[in-house]
Structures are given as C-alpha cells and as structure tokens.
Amino acid sequence: MTRAFLRMLPAYLLAGLTLIALSHALPRFMPGDFVTAMCSGSHVVLNGEEDAELRRRYAHEEGCFQYLARLCRLDWGYSQAFMTPVSRLILDALPWTLLLMGTAHLISTALGFAAGVEAAWRRGQAAQKISVEVMTILEGVPEIATGVLLLLVFALKLGWSPAAGAETAYAQHGTWQRVLDVANHLVLPLSTLVVAYLPGNFLLARWSMLLVLKAPFMETARAKGLPPLRVRYAHGACNALLPLVTRLGLRIAFMVTGAVVVETIHSYPGLGTLLFNAIARRDIPLVQGIVLFSSITFLAVNMGLELFYGWLDPRLKHAS
Amino acid sequence: MHRDSWRELKQDQWFIAGSATALLCLFLVVAGPWFASHDPNDISFSPLSAPSTEHWLGVNDGAMDILAELLHGMRKTAGFGLLSGSAGLGLGIFIGLAAACFGGMAERFLMGLGEILLAILAVMILILAAMFFRPAPVVLAFLLAFLSWPTTAKAIRAQALLRKESLHVRPARQMGASSAYILLRHLLPELYLLYLMGFAGKVRSAVLMEASLAFLGLLDPNRKSLGIIIKYALKYYYLDVRFNWLLPPIACLTLLVMSLTCLVISLEKLFDPRLREWWW
Amino acid sequence: MKVEGLSVGFREGGQVLVALDRVNLELEGGRVVGLVGESGSGKTTLGKSLMGLLAPNALVEGSIRLDERELVGLDETSLNALRWSRVAMVSQAGGGTLNPVHRVVDQVAEPLVQHRRLRAGEARNEALAALGEMGLSAAHGDLFPHQLSGGQVQRVLLAMATILDPAVLVLDEPTAALDVMSKGLMAEVVRNLRDRGKAILLITHDLDLARSLADQVLILYLGQIMETMPALDLLVRPCHPYTLALGRSYPGMGTLRDLGGIRGETHGRRLDLKQWQARAGGIVPPHQPPIRERAVETGRIEFEEGCLFRHRCTQSIDECGRRAVSLVSAGRHQVRCVLGGIAELLRLEKVEKRYGRIHALASTDLALRAGELFCLLGETGSGKTTLAMIAAGVVTMDRGTRFFAGRNMDAWSKEDYRSLAREIGVVYQNPAEAVSHRLKVFDIVAEPLRVQHRRRDSAEVRTRVMEVLSDVRLSTGPEILDRYPHELNMGAVQRVYIARALVTGPRFVVADEPTSALDPGVQAKVIKTLLDLQIEKGLTLLFVTHDVGLARKIADRVGVMLAGRVVEMGSAAEVMQRPRHPYTRLLMEGARHSPGFHRRTHETKRLSAERGGCVFADRCGWATDGCTLESPPLLNVNTSDHWVSCFRMDGLKSSDHVWKPETDEEFSRRSKNKSAGCSL
C-alpha cells in the first residue's frame, strides 16, 4: 500500500459517495412534477400505465442507502426510450467501448512511450526534431477534427474502411472472419483515438526520459559497461514511466467524452453512442446510469493506478 | 525575471505561433459579426445552396448563412472558454494562495475538497446538470470553472509554498510583513507564468468541453456554437456540403485549440527550466 | 593505466570549452593518486574520460592507455567490454548514482550478469557477499536506494565498483556527503583496496583526505596540472601559489589561520574551434562527428597564452602572461610556474644590527614567500621590530644582504629605491608619531603618492586616495578627509595609516604591532580588513606582534624571536600545535595561561645575543652545560617546514615542563611580593 494511496482513499470514497448522492438527489430537484419534467422534452410517449408506474416509483421516498443497494443489485432503472433496462443497455455497449478505448490506450501508450524514449535518446538529431514538431501540432488537433477528416478521407473518398458500425450487420461469419470484420470496423475510430492520444504520450514520455537521461545513475549504468538497450530501458525508461501512467489515469477521465465524439462520428455502438442517443431522446434514467457508471469506473481505475505507482517507483511506497 | 521570461518567450517559436493564432481567433471572435453580412438566424435563403458571392460558405439545411453562423459560433465557443477559464483561474489562484498562506485546517479542507473534485469527472456533472436543468451556458461555464479549479490551485499552492521559503519572501516575513502583504506583494506577481499556463490550459479544455456538450446536444440547439454546427453538418457528411459546412467549423475549432495548446506548451517550457534546456 | 597529453574540450557552437589541457597521469597498482582542485577544474572530467564516459560534444586528444591498449577513439562496444571489468568508478552524486527503482542487490549484481554471464541467482549471491564485505547485510541488499543512509549508499557503490575486481578504480568525491564517522570507515575501505593492489584515482576537494589516503597528489586548475607532489607535502609545503591558496581556503583541523579564500573567480576557458584543432594538430578523432564550422566571435578567448592562474596569483609578473609554462621538476614536486613555484619575495641573509653596545640582531636569515602572512613573535626587545624594519628598508643593517623579488638590493640604483619604496608599505607601531600632526587625513594618505610622483594635487591622486580609503572601509566624505587624525577614533586612525601604507599599491607590507593599541573589538575589525586586503590584493605581509593568540588566527608562517635570534620558525600550524623549542612552548603556555605557569622573566637578567650559547639557556629547565657554550643552529625538523634552534629538542617530550619549576616556597614568597607582572 502506498502512503499516497491511503492518503487519497478518503477523497476517492467521498467523491464516490458525492456522485451517488448527487445522482440520487438530482431528479428531486427538478422543477415541477418530475415525471412531466422528465418526459416533456423527450421523444418518449408514455402510456397511462407506465406513467403511473414511474410516478409510483419516484413518489416512493427512497433513501440514499436504498438507492445505493439498488445500484449494487445492478438495478439502474428502465430506459423508456429503448424499452430496455439501463443495465442491459450499458453492459451491451460496454464491450465495444472497452475494445475501442482499451486498444487505443494500449497502442498510444506503448507506442508513445517507446517513441518518446527513443526520441529522447536521439536528442539533437534532425529526425527527432521533426517528430517533436509534428507531435506538438497533432497535440493541438481535437478528436472531433481527426475523426471527421479520417472519416471523409478513408471511408468516403477512398472507401477503404466501413463508415459505421462495429461489425457488418446480419453477416454470417466464421470466427476468424468475424474477428477480421470487427478489426476492419475498428480501424477508423481506433486511429482517430490513437492520433488524439499518441502525441501527448509521446511528448510526456520524451520529456520525462530527457530528465532521466540527466540523472547520475544513467552514467553509472553506462560506466558498468551495459549494452545501450539495457541502459535505455532497464535503467532509463523504467524511471520515465511514472508520469505516463499518471497521464493514463487522467486520460481515462476523457474516455467517455472522447468515446462520445469518436463513436458518434463513426457510429460505433459503444457507450458513447449510447449516451449520445440517450441525450438525443432525453432518456434521463439512461443518461444517469451511464454518467454514474463511467464516473465510478474512473474513480476505480484511478485508485488502482495509485496502487500501481508504488510498484513502479518504490520511493513513493516508502515516502513519508 | 519578468523581463527575462518575456524575452525568452519572444524567441520561442511555439509561443509565436500560438499567440499569433490566438490573436487571429480573438480578432475573428471580436470583429467577426461585423464581417458577416447576414443574421445567423435569418432563415430566408434557399437551403443547402453551394457557396456563392452572396453566401461565401453557402447555406445550411435550415436556410441559414453558414459564414454568419460560423462567426457567431466561434464567438460563443470562445466566449464560453474564456469565461470558464478566467473564472476557474480566479478561483484556483484565490484558493491556492489562500491555502498556502493560511495553512492548517483551512488548507487541509480546501485541498481535500480539491482532491475530491479532481476525482469526479467534470464532464459527467455537466452532462447531468445540463440534462436535468437545461441551464444557460453561462451557468454551465461557471459550473465547469467550479469543477476545474483544483489543478490550478494545487500547482499554485505548491509553488507558493516553495516561494514562501524563498530568498525574498522569507526576509519580508522576517521584516514583519503581514500574510496579506506577502500574498499580494510577492506571491501573487511571482507566479504569473503559472496563471498564464493555467489560463491557457483551462480555456483549452473549456472550449473542448463546450464543443463536446454542444455536439452531444446538451446545449440549446438554437444557440450557434461550433459544436452544434458540427453536429448538424455531420448529418450530411456524405454530401458535397461537407467542404463548406462541415470542414470550416472543424478548422475553426482546431485553430482555437491548437493556438491554446501551443501557448500551454511554450509556457510550460518556460516555467520548467529543465524542460527548456532539454527541449531539443 | 597511463594518461599522456590528455586534452578534453566541450564543443559549444564554434567554441571549445577546455576542460583538460595536456594532462599526464600514471596510475599504478597499489598506489593512490589524489586529484585536487576547485569545482570546474576538470577533476570529474578526467575521471569520466578514463571510462570513456564523456558527453557527446566532447573532443578528446592525447592518449589513455590501459594495459598497452589505447582507450581514446575506441568504439563503444570495445569500451563496454573494458568498463567496470577493468576500470570502475564511484561517482560523485551519492544516492543519485543508484537507480531508484531497482533493489540495490540487483544493481550490484548487474555487472556480473552482463560481463561474466552469471545466472541471476549466482550473481545475487555474489553481490550479497560483496555487500557483506562492506558490512551490509542481506536485508540491506533487498532495500531500495532511497532507504539507505548516505554512508550505506557509499558502501553499496564501492561494493558495486569492486564486484568485477577491476584493476583501476576512480573514486570521485567518495566522502563528499558523509559525516566524519562514515568518512573514516570509507578511508579504511579505500586503504584496503589499495593494499589489494588496485590502482586508485581519488578525486576530492577534501585536502586532509587526499593527504591521508593518497601517495601522490595532483593539483588541477582549469584543466591544467599546476603541481604534483607527495601527498604528505599537501597543506604543509605548497610550491605553487595556487596550492598555497587552496590550503588557505581549506577548513582542516590542522589549519589555525582564519579561512582566506582565493582572490578573483575562475572563468571557463574557451578556445576557438580552429585554435583547438591547431593545438591538436588538426586531428579530429574518428569517433567524433564531423564539425560544422560556424562564425566564431572573436575577442572572447581568454587565457590562451601564459599561466592560467596569473589573474588570481599573488606573485604574477608581466612575464606570466607572455609565455606558456610547462611542468618543471622542483625536488619531489613538479610545478607549473614561470617563477618556478612560490617565489621568495624577500630574503635576508646573515643580517646583523647593533645599537651602540647592544647587539639587537644576531646574524639572522629570513625568507618571505610571495602572498603569505609571516608573523614575527617574541617578547619586547627580542629584535623583531628591528628585523622587520630592516626588511622594509627603514633601518639600515650593519652586515648582511637583502634580496627583494630576487634582486640584491645593495646593487640597486636610486631609481630602484624609488620603485622599491612603491613596492613596500609600512604600518608603524606608533603611526601618529611617524606622521606630521599638521596633516589632514587626505594629505596623510596622499603624501606617499606625492613623494613618489613628485606631483602636487591632481585628480589622479584624489581618485587613488578615495580608492584606497574605501579599500580600508573608510568613508570618503569630508567628515574623514578634512579631519586631523587626533579627531578620529583609534580604529579609524589605524585604518588611515593602513591606507597610507597601501596607497602606492605595494606588494609587500610590513605591519609593526598595528593593532596593539586598540580595543579587542576595534582590533578585530581592523585585522579583518587587513586580511581581506591581503587576499584581494595578493599582498605579502610581515606582521610583528607579541600577541600569540592574534598570530595564531592570522599567520601562515611564524618566526619566534628571542634576544635577537630566531629560535623557531615554520608553518603556523606546526609551530603553534607542535612547538619544539622550549621557549616557544613557554610562550604558548603563557598565552594559554596554563595552570602552574608563572612568569619568571623578571627574575632573569636581560639577555643579549652577544653572549655565546643558547639565548634561552638561563631560563630553560632543560639546558645543559653545552647549551651555554655554543649557540644552536636553526635546523629543519622532520621533512616539513619547521625550523628549530635547540640542542635538546629531540629529548624533549610534550609532557615535560620546559621551565625551571618553582618550589612552593618560592611561589608563596613571590605571591606575597605581588611582583608578578602580566607582560611577557
């Protein structure tokens, strides 16, 4: 257990509770009659029976703890727009988002790290300078722009990849064909996200590696007569990893928003598209469910990373 | 130090590029509506017509002039960013310095609150708020500011604590200067680079946030903003109108974000001398 | 390992920052070579170049040979094979040199895995054994570097450096961050390593450490070796002015004098790329990337010709700037100096002086080195003032020769004497009497200038007077300038007379009891000013005093006088801490007011150098008959700079009483008489 983790634990717990309390309380603060307010802007037309059911549900004063218990039972409400339980919708969409975002983060972090380390190692060289310039410019391009451009060029102009969906609908594929099909659909949104995340990772990895290169222990490593690759990675890169992991944690904050834009542009059936549609249809329970789910995930992931830091840098574990 | 950093900034290509683009954006934002020969809400033109001398960027599906829409949209988006950025920065500076100066329980409370806010996804709160209450964008901007102060406050507090022990602040304290004096006279001006950095960063994320929220359809669809223009244009991306309808707002947004990114990078470089020395 | 003509420069644009300039060095098994110098002198660069670890912009010339194998220009792979297995280092940064994310035992074991291809388990066991030898347990090995103390880290580093049993060890400031206890332990470890036959290069700024550990010491300044010497001579017998200045800046336990520092600052030494190449014979080593020529700013090149230290040196002459000097052997030392090392500024040979029937000064020799502060100690009437005034040229001598800056002064012409007067300043014991009462401060200070230049009043004189007054920390306003000395307080008056002595810009100043009339508080301030001026201007000072405590704080060397003879002379630390002459010991104990010490001077008759035999024999508890017959010669003690004139010094133990003990009766009688004076 790192001290930092223990120090942060109360903050995380409080944040989680705040979120749940907020999610519990917000509907009650809505102006006017809740059900009317909730449904007035939506595209949902309730029949009398449903209306009565909803009213009964919300009129019943539910305490915060009961609400919490309900959340734990995966009973996150019922989406009027999709006529499906919220949990079902989220759990259906989740794998796609995980696939997309997971791969994107994996690739951009690994690639950015390796490229950053190498760029730092080759500081002063022309190619390295150009790569830094390009990456800095790319860092300034929002996902929305990359996504649209890639879509226009590769899907519409060149027709290389499908413009929408996560797999070809109603196709009867064998396992391998299906994998290929999924991968084919994944390429565009994935490259959008990689282009969006890579520059930041690259610049950060390069910067922290530059700092590490100046450290005396790097000279010790060279003096020991170790081969360059070992000097660079076993001694250097190890120390440059921490800021990148921190960044990964922060990046997950943008996971859902990032996913919303990219998934919507490429019509990828993940959580983002679900959120987009839910908002479009003003499906409050679903939005609420997604928001709560992703916030709690964010909290959990960051808590996990906090534990990971101690393993990455022993100084943090013992720091007083 | 002030003059030095300014001289150094003037030689930094990222800063030059960033500030030039930012000035261009600012010019468009301030003077844009005068260029637009049409009212953005005027729906008296023929829908989806191609660019012409009358309508430089054509007309959208709602029969509105796209150029006028764009210029107004930029104003809205940039305005949201600036408002939220300055509010967040002010809050961050105030809380950061207050925490550093008062110490004790106040500091612990403020920083704890900061940690909690950092652990909460700001965007999710905004989505919830927008969903339930459909507030005016100004309210959302302030809400975002309230959620985004901790990063600045943390950085400023850390630096202020460092400076508090530094060469000229300690002697001032020894001379019997009050906390308020030290705060206003030494710490506040000392950290100006940090403010600039925090401001640019906050405006950048607020601009992106506004675009995202608008894109999600959480903001009033009649309110022109880059996100909303992109959202509607995207419906027709397979048509030829993409070149005059979809790409311009994307280019504008990219321009805005890129200028701010360049500024943040150059300021970061200046603030961390290690970064400066090793940049190439 | 043999280093020959090694020059290292770092390219910065079109210029080359010279870090090492034609350094020769030989490391042999079982010997420790100490490398001493200020930061920026190139010590660490030398250590790194032995391992081929210089930054990519380094230009290397010359040769580094290890077992007849040339290291300069060797490619990285071959270097890697040699690194750590043949040459290992402990570098400067202490804990920073260990990777924070790996356990220490793994880091110690790493070279075994890489060079000896051991399996991880074996390597770990061997590493633990090596750590064990350094007194660290297996539990320590499993810790991370930040969990170890500074001393433990240093031991880990040493264990790591010796794990492959290299022939050559480079220790870069191994004790810089350690406390005294850990330092001692570390020194012990280094001695063991030397005894095991390792060749060790010890880089340090800790002079005491270098003195106690090394066999030979190299003094490095701006990349040039200024002096090489046997380690024991360090601090005691410097031959180069820089070595002297270093010793004066070092707060060792052996130094008594207040820290002096070295005047001026070092500047990085830069050469044009072309100049560098020309010096190196136009050869760029093959492993260096090709050099792109750039426009070179001229005029920023410093120190190309001449001695590098001349701007800070206390004895530099015009010639120092004109020609480059090489290392020249001087006894067991090698010195790089135009003047052949610390020069003798003043030399008196067999000087004698009589006042009527009184033989005030028996045949006496005295040599003053440039830049030092020599203190003449002794009781009233011992002839110290006479000697000092002869040195200053104020008093003529009856017999003997005087040399100033290497020239016999008797052969000097009138013109020479005028310039001599400019070179020598005198602060008199009772200055008020040496100066007309009717002169105002300005005129007092300006008088020597007017005499020298035969000029009345001029702007030049005025500026010079102002300058020198602010040098002695006096105000230059009318409230000082237009006053008469008797209107000022004592401290200010003394400062005025110091200013008067310094106004011509002398190299040599004789100060005869300049502060004996002052309160301790004022005296301290005046002395401080004087010492600061000595460092700033590089003055050589001959200081006459009877105050042992004062001499202890200010002197580099002291001479103890008694009855017209120098009875003991040497470096202040030696003489004060290990006095050999019974009289000196008496003097020291008197100054300390040791219990049981009773002055008996009043009981002895006035001594004169005229009589044969030791001048102290009458009072000496150790005197034998021989002592009264023949006067003992001034002989060198040990090898260090310490001269004593005593027949019995070898038989004297430090616990022995050097004076004739008084019986109790004698004491009580004397106490009743209350005749015991307080002056020595």
Provide structural commentary.
The complex is a heterotrimer of chains A (320), B (280) and C (680). By secondary structure, chain A is mainly α. In chain A, 78% of the residues lie in helices and 1% in strands. Chain A has 14 helices and 2 strands; from the N terminus they run ααααββαααααααααα. A two-stranded antiparallel sheet of chain A has the order 1-2. Chain A is globular, with a radius of gyration of 24 Å. Chain B has 280 residues and is mainly α. Chain B has a single domain (2-36, 64-279), classed as Orthogonal Bundle (MetI-like fold), CATH 1.10.3720. Helix content of chain B is 74%, strand content 0%. Chain B has helices spanning 2-11, 13-35, 66-102, 104-119, 122-133, 137-164, 169-174, 179-190, 192-216, 226-234, 247-271, 273-277. In chain B, α3 (66-102) crosses α8 (179-190). Chain B is elongated and about 75 Å long. Chain B starts with a helix and ends with a helix. In chain C, α3 (104-115) runs parallel beside α6 and α15 packs parallel to α18. By secondary structure, chain C is α/β, with parallel strands linked by helices. In chain C, strands 6-7-8-3-9-10-13-12 form an 8-stranded mixed beta sheet, sandwiched between helices. Chain C has an 8-stranded mixed beta sheet with strand order 19-20-21-16-22-23-25-24, sandwiched between helices. Chain C has 3 domains: 2-220, 3-Layer(aba) Sandwich (Rossmann fold); 344-554, P-loop containing nucleotide triphosphate hydrolases (Rossmann fold, 3-Layer(aba) Sandwich); 559-672, no CATH class. The model of chain C is unreliable at 282-304, 599-609 and 674-680 (pLDDT under 50). Chains in contact: A-B, A-C. At the A-B interface, α1, α6, α7, α8 and α11 of A face α4, α5, α9 and α11 of B.
